[in-house]
Write a structure and sequence with these properties.
Layout lengths: L13 H7 L3 H19 L5 H4 L9 H16 L8 H19 L34
Helix pairs in contact: 2-4, 4-5
Length: 137
């Protein structure tokens, strides 16, 4: 898995996590939900299979931190175990803002780009024009 349960300890204390749930499957579901949400933002432009198959130091550190914040947000919805709910909401919102800026190409993280079958980078270029304007005299 891209993020392990033990890595969440940099975002939430062990005793807080134990107060929320003692079910490892619930924690894994929160991590998977956070990853799926991130994939939704990254998939059009980046190779998410390659990104989320990396482990350890090969991973993008900022992406890891944002996904951990998102996963903890999904867990805290179950129970606010002596935590500042608003602060976690801010961390979650910051993660979504970061992912949104990536999807709008406002920032470009160091992540592998999507490549099609021919080996070319997949890009989303929109082309178009305004509706034709007619003058009537």
């Amino acid at each position: 898995m891209f993020i392990t349960q033990s890595e969440l300890m940099s975002v939430i204390y062990d005793w807080q996590l134990d107060q929320i749930t003692d079910d490892p499957e619930t924690i894994d579901q929160a991590i998977m939900a956070a990853m799926e949400e991130a994939i939704g933002y990254l998939k059009p432009q980046y190779d998410t299979d390659k990104i989320f198959s990396t482990t350890g130091a090969e991973r993008n550190v900022l992406l890891v931190e944002h996904i951990k914040s998102m996963a903890v947000w999904y867990l805290v919805r179950l129970s606010n175990a002596d935590m500042i709910f608003e602060r976690l909401k801010v961390y979650y919102d910051n993660a979504i803002t970061w992912l949104s800026r990536i999807s709008k190409k406002q920032i470009a993280p160091d992540l592998p780009l999507r490549i099609d079958d021919s080996g070319e980078v997949v890009s989303r270029i929109k082309m178009g024009s305004r509706a034709k304007f007619h003058h009537d005299y």
